[in-house]
Protein 1
Amino acid sequence: MKTRALGTLAAVIVAGAMAIWMTAALAQNIGGTRGPTPLDQNAAQPPIPAEVNDDVRRGRAYPEQPPVIPHTIQNYEISLNANKCLTCHGRQFTQQSQAPMISVTHFMGRDDQVLATVSARRFFCTQCHVPQHDAKPLVENNFRDIDSLILTQTGVDPKQAVRRKP
Ligand code: HEC
Ligand code: HEC
C-alpha cells in the first residue's frame, strides 16, 4: 500500500515538473529550423538555392548509401506512364547516354531473384536518390566516415591499405 502511495506521489511530481517545463518552452522562442520567428508569425522565406548540376559523381558515406544525384532532375517525370531516369540509366540505354547503369540490386525482387527489368520496388528513384542543393546545412552533423573511425581506433589507414606498397 505504502509503495503505491509513493508511486502516485512521484507521478504527480513528474507531471507537475513537465507542465512547468512545457509552459516555459512555449513562452520562449523555441527556435528550430524556422529561426527565431515566433510561432504565430510567418518567417521570411529565403531564396531557393540552386540545384547542383556539375556532373561530378559524389563519394558515398557508407557502402549501402544510394548515391546522390549530381545533375538537375527538374521536370523529370516518374509516373505510371513514364520514367525519365530509366531513359538514361536503364540497361538498354547506357551505351548511348554514358550514364552509370542502375545496379543489379535494382533488378532484384523481394526474394533477391534477378528479374529481366527494374523491380517495382526500385521504380520510384527519388524515394532513395536525391539531387543536391548549394545550401548550408540546417543542423550540425558530426557523422564520421568508417575509415576515420578505423584509423583512430587501430592506427591503420584503410585508404593506404588499398594502395600498392613500395
Ligand atoms: C539525360 C540522361 C540522364 C537522365 C534523364 C538522368 N540521368 Fe542520372 N546520370 C546521368 C549521367 C550521364 C550521370 C553521370 C554523372 C553525370 O554526368 O551527371 C548520372 C549520374 C546519376 C547518379 C550518380 C551515380 C553515382 O554512382 O554517383 C544518380 C544517383 C542518378 N544519375 C540518378 C538519376 C535519377 C534518379 C534520375 C531521374 C530523376 C536521373 N538520374 C536521370 C544521366 C542521366
Ligand atoms: C529503395 C531505394 C532505391 C530506389 C527506389 C532506387 N535506387 Fe538506385 N541505388 C540504391 C542504392 C542503395 C544504391 C547503392 C547500392 C546498390 O547498388 O544497390 C543504388 C545505386 C544506384 C546507382 C549506381 C549504380 C552503380 O553501379 O554505381 C544508380 C545509377 C542508380 N542507383 C539509379 C537509380 C534509378 C535510375 C532508379 C529509379 C529507376 C533507382 N536508382 C531507384 C537505392 C535505390
Protein 2
Amino acid sequence: MKTSTQTAQQTRRLPVRFRLRPVRREDLDWVEALERELCPDPWPRGAFETQMRNPYTEMWVAVVEGNEGGKERVIGYLVLWIHEDAVEVANIGVAQAYQGRKVGSALLEKALDTARRLGKTYVYLDVRMDNHKALQWYLRRGFQIERRLPRYYRIPPNRWEDGLRMVKKIAP
Ligand SMILES: CC(C)(COP(=O)(O)OP(=O)(O)OC[C@H]1O[C@@H](n2cnc3c(N)ncnc32)[C@H](O)[C@@H]1OP(=O)(O)O)[C@@H](O)C(=O)NCCC(=O)NCCS
C-alpha cells in the first residue's frame, strides 16, 4: 500500500508542461508568494519591483497553463544580474509542489544560455552553506566552489550563516 508521502513524491516527479518567458508585472504576486514559501530570508516585493526596472537585470518565470485554458500560473522564477564578464544568478526558485520535474534545470540552463548569448565568460551564484540540496544540485550541474563567504546570510531573527560562491565557466 502506498503512503501519502510516497504518492506525493511520485506525483512530483511526473513531467509537467511548462514554458519560460520574461517576467511581467502581473506575475509579481506569484513570485512574491513563492519567494516566501522557499526562502528563510525572502526578498521583499519592492526588491523584485526594483529589479524589473534595472537595465542590468533579466527576470524569467516558468509558467503552466491554468485549468481549462485559464490564466497562467507561475511555478518558478529566475533573477539574473548582468556583469561585465559574467552573469550572476541572483535568485532562483521552484514551487515545492513542482520540484523534481526539471523546472529548475530549465531555469539554470536559461542562465547559462544568457551568458553565452551575451558573450560572458562565466556564471556565478552564492548559496547558503547549509542548503545542501541546492549545493549538490549545482555541483551536479558543473558548478565549482570558488570560496567561502563568512557570515554572508542573515537568518531571522538574529542568526548568520556562511555562504559559498560557486562558478561555472562558459566554453568559448
Ligand atoms: C534548487 C531548486 C531551484 C531546484 O529546482 P527543481 O525544479 O527541483 O530542479 P530539477 O527538477 O531540475 O532537479 C531536482 C533534482 O532533485 C531530484 N528529485 C527527485 N525527486 C525529487 C522530488 N520529489 N522533489 C525534488 N527533487 C527531486 C531530481 O531527480 C533532480 O536530481 P538531479 O540533480 O540528479 O537531476 C529547487 O529545489 C528550489 O527552488 N529550492 C529552494 C530555493 C533554493 O534553494 N534556491 C537556490 C538558492 S541559491
